[in-house]
Amino acid sequence: MGRHIYVHNPFCVRKCPYCDFYSITDRSCAEAYYDAAVKEARFWADFDKKHGSSGDNGPDTVYFGGGTPSCVPEELVCGLLEEITASFGIGSDAEITLEVNPASFSKEKGKKYLSSGFNRLSMGIQSLNDGVLKTLGRLHDSKGAIKALNEAFEAGFANISVDFITGVPGQDMEMILDGLKTVIDMGVKHVSTYSLSIEENTPFYDLYKDSIEDLLTPETERGMYHMVRRFLGVNGIIPYEISNSSIPGFESRHNTAYWDGADYYAVGAGAHGYLNSVRFGHEDNVESYIKCACDIKENDILKLLGYANAALDSIEGFLYCEERLTLEDKMREYPFLKLRTSKGIDTAEFYSRYGKRFEEVYKNVLESNTGKGLLAVEGQRIFLTSKGLDLANLVMEDFL
Ligand code: SF4
User: Fold this and answer.
1) Is position 291 within any domain?
2) Which label site among 5, 109, 235, 386 has the fewest CB atoms less than 10 Å from its CB?
């Protein structure tokens, strides 16, 4: 399995009222933050040479997410990628994605992103209906989104993904399908669709907490979900995961690596990674990140990631260990991650990784879920049925 790099940009122009991700709107420290991220990237590149699989083409994918990476000067983003490419020795066939928002994207920026090495864009369009975009508190309208998407193609990006949100108050099926049709006709290769979830500690929660039940019944939400998948599939954008669909060959290699349990480095405040069977996260704090990333002590990292005898659970203000996975944990996690994908579980792969037969380890869970019509078995492949997709969380939890 290859290695991957996730970079987190925590800055946004404005906080969307439904968002509960870690992001901040004060961009005055963006330069200091990116300087610190360069230092952290150099540290991991050096670490990769010592502990990764040296001699290969370097990590397979790099993903700059956020936050809104396009809302900080492009020189910072491009400079960090160039540093990562040089220090890790990223190969020319790597997938390198940048998340952008229509309101902070332009053709000029796009050209700079492309020439610094990004070869895939993920654009947060969310909807092409102005009423829905207003409800979501987005900074762009439908015209702005179409303009940004056009400019991304004109800048030279051929591999573009867009995000859409469903289940927004006041949104109907026609609005969603019209928006999807427009972006498909424009030539996007990949679509991610997410159902709006109203989280505590957001303005949306305060606004809708008394009417959450009335906003969208589970039946309507599921109906929308299946209709969207069917529509995308009929139009050549084939669902390959619970929330993701693409033209075959344009599946996100970076996200596929997550579902495959691959190792990935994490750079930036709030970024999460997985190395040496340890899940770890950066503290959600830009100020302390800037301080700590400039003074990383290798010994502390070795202890936190289980390379040294003494274990360390956190490095104050910087990193913390979320979980140390045993072989049993990984065996339990395997179906949880794989069932998200249309390919599903590969019993031969399970055997080669863990030396046990999947059908024996999970005999009861398998029988009960296939009996209920939630899982299907085809040769060495086990996957969620259409009915199983509606109860995916319950099925996955059954394996834990
Ligand atoms: S742009 Fe994205 S990360 Fe930023 S506040 Fe809005 S939803 Fe959250």
Assistant:
1) no
2) 386
